[in-house]
Input
Amino acid sequence: MSTDDPLAARRNAFELPLSLLVAILLTQRWLWFKRVFRTVFFAPLVIPVAMAGLIFNFLLNPANGALNDFLRDIGIITRAIDFLGDPNYALITVILISVWQIFGQYMIYWIAALQNVPEEMYESAEIDGANEWQKLLLITLPIIRPVAVIILFLSFVNALKVFGLIVAMPAGQGSTEVVSTFIYGQALAEPPFRYGYASAAAVLFGVTVLLAVTTQGFFVRKAQAA
Output
């Protein structure tokens, strides 16, 4: 068993930059219907994990799922794709569903951080001739860096807590196995039960999370001092 969690790493690499980009767009003065967009992005967060898993089980079913029917109707595919059963698609499918469900939480974090950037700094930069990209690199990102460190660590810890989604939506013949499902499988799923092996994995998993949480303060202070 490896302590590497491919789902956690890939989910973070995808969701954090995307949620920051959406947050930047939703804090622009020229954008209309900001509250509507924020509600749309935040709504999946209130859906229980088990319910989300059941919904996507129906939507992605290769026999009569709505997604396969839609892709066939518009001519993208000719044969149904088993998004959850095929190991080639299972991991990316679970990652996308996981990002969809948690995306709104990080978007709200980024929006809160962006709203703390003084508007006067942007106005001064505009007077000096700075474009939007320069304002982002030279003003926005340095100011929100301490909050970005906190969001990064929160996303790392949250990305490890995908047990409920994977159990509610079994996929990929082992290709979507993460540490928590490995522990469950060793201790409770099928005999012979390997309690010692599962306990060792659980301790290692707990130590990893504990190290991430305890080092968060150090990196936040370092970001604030930079």
Notes: The mean pLDDT is 81. The CA atoms of residues 109 and 151 lie 7 Å apart.
